[in-house]
């Protein structure tokens, strides 16, 4: 896709030259092509960063920072990152302040923004200065400097600038600084890990060589609820992500599984099998106030709150096969949402409230699927391999999920329309991603 | 035959996994284990740096606390002859289920009847009934499925005269497969009720 765009731009460059020579018709045709392609995305040229003077070969921070920035911006699906080599002007090492000369040319190519940055080493820290110019007006939209440790925070600095740029263009918080918690199967154990949203910096959170499952971030991103067998029973724990402290929230006989945080962070919905059947219960985050939301001898698991906190969708086999249901928080208005196929599970309500993502078994293959909260407009997003565990990004624009499409089970992300899938893990059996707020 | 190859391949995978598992668990630290790194990013400053710009406190890294080492989650390896049930952990026979089902098949009831006889002649023995599922379907649903399978076996034993307090149940869902593999030669053995005699 990018290739094609690059060719289109180059061709447009040729076209413009021809236009200057008088062949207006041909140039117009190329211009129409460009406008069609960039219709929805904001074309932003990212200039190259000058390497630091003391850079060792192979450790070029300028290249790292620029590529992280470009990847972050491109990932949004809202910004089209224009590669400098596709342009007829040289912006490979443009410095802040030197942009005035190139803006008119960029304007001719319908580029809307130009990101110019520079790096500076300050002791053990790295300073990233980033400027985004509105190509048409020549004004600076973003002018920021971020500082962080030159060995451990390089990618974080770039993520932060990327989020700032996304905010200035869209008014929404970007997701470049978010993290993804997940389960990694290692030697028969299942451990919890957390990584940056782009798959970098994986860190082990548990280390008990037991079975740890279903990590779920609290809405403020400080706590992770999860199930662990470390004491011999599937109990529900809460990990304080900042202090590393752990508390056991629920250790009733049988299952204490599939946690979900209410949007206000005060309640946890979970599934308990203490009474025979497996049913959804609610408890306060300190473990008090336990009450059942569903009853019966069947299975009800994987609750997910609507963004307004008034409804819970979940998986239940009460109709004979696993299907998705919703119920009001008062325990009333129970309704079935899925009717296609004999296996629909793992619902996740989008943060915008307009969709529910879930797993659907389509002719033997489990696929990530979307529907409206009333069950209408069912739309399958994946096709290759077995795909499970959908989890929304906080802006509702992306989904993380697990897939066996490359052989082993790995964590992927994609846009909420199923496009632009990207593989994040490559170490083998990884699943159950949950995206931090 | 294709299924035989698949079965043998499954055995090979299981043996290799076990070998690798032993090797890796012998090492003190898994190579996967990343160190939590402080990644504080300084505060924003306008284009020109004001002297003494305020920095945000670096985000505290998650402390990775080591928990006591227990090993309930190891993948066990058992040689499997395709077409024949894995040798049961004698003297009690495991039982097997159909996909997404928790009802006891006739072959399962036959096994349970023999187990009941053993339990009656070993009145002091207590057992843990593990419910398992194959890898298909979602993990959380499979935990509940395994729970119900274990309880179905427990109810059958109790109905046959075994005291309920001699049978503890636990579900492992799809998290502790008996046979590694991604087709029915593995799945059929992984949808099981597994008997463990409590020590």
Index terms:
heterodimer; A: 437 residues; alpha+beta; Rossmann fold; Neuraminidase; 2 domains; four-stranded antiparallel sheet; 16% helix; disordered N terminus; B: 199 residues; 60s Ribosomal Protein L30, Chain: A; four-stranded mixed sheet; 4 strands; 35% helix; elongated
Task: Characterize the structure shown.
The complex is a heterodimer of chains A (437) and B (199). Chain A has 437 residues and is an alpha+beta fold. Chain A folds into two domains: 38-170, Rossmann fold; 179-435, Neuraminidase (6 Propeller). Helix content of chain A is 16%, strand content 40%. Chain A has five helices and 29 strands. Chain A has helices at 2-21, 24-37, 61-75, 103-108, 154-170; strands at 42-46, 79-82, 113-122, 125-134, 140-149, 179-186, 189-196, 203-204, 212-217, 223-228, 235-240, 246-250, 256-261, 267-272, 279-284, 291-292, 300-305, 311-316, 323-328, 335-336, 344-349, 356-362, 365-371, 379-380, 387-392, 398-406, 408-415, 422-423, 430-435. Chain A has a five-stranded mixed beta sheet, with helices on one face. Chain A has a four-stranded antiparallel beta sheet with strand order 8-7-6-29, with no helix packed on it. In chain A, strand 17 and strand 18 (311-316) form a beta hairpin. The longest helix of chain A is centred in the first third of the chain and has 20 residues, at 2-21. Mean pLDDT of chain A is 90; it is low at 1-39. With 199 residues, chain B is of the alpha+beta class. Chain B has a domain at 95-197: 60s Ribosomal Protein L30, Chain: A, CATH 3.30.1330.60. In chain B, 35% of the residues lie in helices and 11% in strands. Chain B has helices spanning 2-26, 106-121, 139-159, 184-190; strands at residues 95-96, 127-132, 167-173, 192-197. In chain B, strands 1-4-2-3 form a four-stranded mixed beta sheet. In chain B, helix 3 (139-159) links the parallel strand 2 (127-132) and strand 3. Chain B starts with a helix and ends with a strand. In chain B, 39% of the residues are buried. Mean pLDDT of chain B is 71; it is low at 1-8, 10-16 and 18-84. At the A-B interface, strand 4, strand 5, helix 5, strand 7 and strand 8 of A face helix 1, helix 3 and strand 3 of B.
């Amino acid at each position: 896709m990018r290739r094609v765009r690059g060719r289109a731009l180059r061709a447009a460059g040729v076209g413009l030259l021809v236009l200057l020579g008088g062949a207006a018709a041909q140039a117009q045709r190329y211009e129409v092509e460009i406008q069609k392609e960039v219709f929805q995305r904001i074309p932003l040229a990212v200039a190259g960063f000058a390497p630091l003077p003391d850079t060792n070969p192979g450790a070029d921070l300028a290249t790292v920072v620029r590529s992280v920035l470009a990847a972050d911006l491109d990932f949004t699906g809202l910004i089209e990152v224009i590669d400098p080599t596709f342009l007829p002007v040289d912006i490979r090492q443009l410095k802040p302040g030197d942009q005035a000369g190139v803006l008119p040319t960029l304007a001719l190519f319908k580029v809307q923004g130009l990101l110019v940055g520079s790096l500076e080493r300050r002791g053990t820290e790295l300073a990233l200065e980033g400027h985004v110019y509105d190509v048409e007006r020549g004004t600076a939209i973003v002018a920021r400097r971020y500082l962080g440790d030159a060995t451990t925070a390089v990618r974080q600095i770039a993520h932060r600038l990327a989020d700032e740029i996304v905010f200035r263009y869209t008014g929404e918080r970007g997701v470049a600084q978010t993290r993804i918690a997940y389960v990694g199967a290692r030697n028969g154990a299942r451990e919890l890990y957390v990584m940056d949203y782009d798959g970098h910096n994986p860190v082990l959170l548990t280390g008990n060589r037991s079975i740890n499952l279903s990590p779920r971030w609290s809405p403020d991103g400080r706590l992770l609820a999860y199930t662990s067998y470390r004491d011999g029973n599937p109990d529900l724990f809460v990990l304080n992500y900042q202090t590393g402290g752990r508390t056991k929230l629920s250790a009733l006989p049988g299952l204490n599984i599939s946690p979900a945080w209410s949007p206000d962070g005060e309640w946890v919905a979970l599934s308990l099998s203490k009474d025979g059947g497996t049913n959804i219960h609610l408890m306060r985050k300190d473990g008090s106030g336990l009450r059942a939301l569903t009853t019966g001898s069947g299975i009800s698991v994987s609750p997910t709150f609507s963004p307004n906190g008034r409804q819970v969708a979940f998986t239940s086999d009460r109709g004979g096969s696993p299907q998705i249901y919703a119920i009001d928080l008062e325990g009333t208005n129970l309704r079935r949402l899925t009717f296609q196929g004999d296996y629909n599970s793992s619902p996740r309500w989008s943060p915008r409230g307009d969709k529910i993502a879930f797993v659907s078994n389509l002719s033997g293959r489990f696929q990530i699927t979307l529907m409206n909260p009333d069950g209408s407009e069912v739309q399958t997003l994946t096709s290759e391999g077995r795909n499970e565990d959908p989890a929304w990004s906080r802006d509702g624009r992306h989904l993380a999920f697990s897939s066996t499409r490359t052989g082993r089970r790995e964590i992927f992300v994609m846009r909420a329309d199923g496009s632009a899938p990207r593989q994040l893990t490559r170490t083998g059996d990884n699943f159950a991603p949950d995206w931090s707020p | 035959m294709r299924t035989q190859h698949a079965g043998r391949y499954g055995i090979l995978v299981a043996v290799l996994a076990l070998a690798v598992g032993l090797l890796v668990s012998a090492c003190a630290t898994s190579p996967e284990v990343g160190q939590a790194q402080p990644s504080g990013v300084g505060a924003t400053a306008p284009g020109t740096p004001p002297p003494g710009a305020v920095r945000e406190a670096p985000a505290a890294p998650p402390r990775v606390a080591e928990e006591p080492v227990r090993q309930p989650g190891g993948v066990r390896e058992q040689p499997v002859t395709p077409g024949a049930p894995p040798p049961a952990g004698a003297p009690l026979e495991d039982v097997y289920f159909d996909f997404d089902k928790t009802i006891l098949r006739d072959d399962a009831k036959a096994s349970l009847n023999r187990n009941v006889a053993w339990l009656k002649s070993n009145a002091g023995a207590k057992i843990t009934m593990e419910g398992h599922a194959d890898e298909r379907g979602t993990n959380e649903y499979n935990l509940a499925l395994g729970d119900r399978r274990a309880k179905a076996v427990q109810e059958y034993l109790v109905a046959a005269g075994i005291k309920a307090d001699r049978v503890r149940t636990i579900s492992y869902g799809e998290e502790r497969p008996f046979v590694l593999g991604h087709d029915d030669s593995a799945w059929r053995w992984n949808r099981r009720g597994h008997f463990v005699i409590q020590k």
